Amino acid sequence: MSTPPATDTGTTTSTAAGESVDLVTAVVAALGPVGSGVTVLVGEDREVLSALRARGPVVAVGSAVRAATDALPLVDDAAEALVAVHALREVEDLDAAIAGFARVVGDGGRVVIAANALAHRRELRGVWATAARDCGVVDPPPLLDIDERFPLDHARAWMQRHLADVTVTPVRGATTLDTAQVLALLRAERPDTAGVTWDLLASVAESRVRDVVAEHGGFTLSTLTGIATGVVRGA
Question: In the predicted model, is pLDDT for residue 87 greater than 80?
Fold first, then answer.
């Protein structure tokens, strides 16, 4: 497994003029002017794929090899750009994966990686911790975080080991869910052991979430995702 680099404490770049953009728009903007080469898409995202196809030829690498992105079945310098959308969650060797991205992109091409930040959907963790404490758990274990291997917060530090001119663009937003959707997320991300049965914890969490939904018409989760962009420089 890769040794994590020092945590990046640099300030992320903001979107132009502070404008709000969605992730797809941010990805397309990061790629820059349309060229004549191929763009590789790692991971599965229909909206991103559609946007990339509108720009030019695309080679889509789906989930079949997402867990082994350090072994992309592409020759060196095969593309002018590579976009990876939430594709590093299951990768054991992040250094090998990012080096593999750089390998298939020619000199001067761009690598764009989309990832969630550590603060993504922070309200969900609040519901979990509060409900667990209400059930008598003094020190609740955290929810499982599928993004902790490669969060946006650490993207610059990882990518600078293999790419030049790395920038990070956060994309902030919010999503409103009903009670059943919030509980489904909690169930999917709950730790193996929590010091209390899931049925009891779910009943307490459901009561809290229902109160919020009744008062506000839904339960709002803050979203914090974004993209990190780097340029391939020849040796």
Answer: yes
